[in-house]
Description:
The chain is 83% helix and 0% strand. The chain contains eight helices and no strands.
Amino acid sequence: MKKQILLLLTLFVSLTTFAQKNELKAAEKALKKMDYATAKSSLDQAESLISNADDKTKAKFYYLKGETYAGLSKTAPTADNYNTAAGAYNSLFALENSPNGKYTKLAEPTMNTMITDLSSKGIKSYQDKNYSAAKTELYQVYNLSKKDTAFLEYAANAAYLDKDYDVALKDFTELKDLF
């Protein structure tokens, strides 16, 4: 009886690993074709299985998720797409914990492009006195690059100028807590 349970458990684990890798391959193929919706769908299916994966598979998953949402943010520039891409990249960087990691090297150019594009957009919104858009865009830049706290300060200032005092207080408090 114990052998049968062990066999079933082993079979289940191998099927789960096989399913993860198939979904990641499908997402990778979709990304090469710039079919971000299909890649997102494949990653959504793999996400529930990824918690049991090894670090190499998790790194690939986070890289593909970041690339997918970065691509989606070009076609549909929403806060959710930017934040999801930022979260995936930050998870990848934390997992690989090295600038020389395979997927970290691949992700950095896309991440830098997103930071540059979004910061330009946020600064333009700020200069045009569209503080409502600027506070969101500049906070997203801070989420993409937590090292550069100036964007958090700019986001807080934009929220203050937009008279969104709750967000301004939250951002200024977060900035204060960093120091």
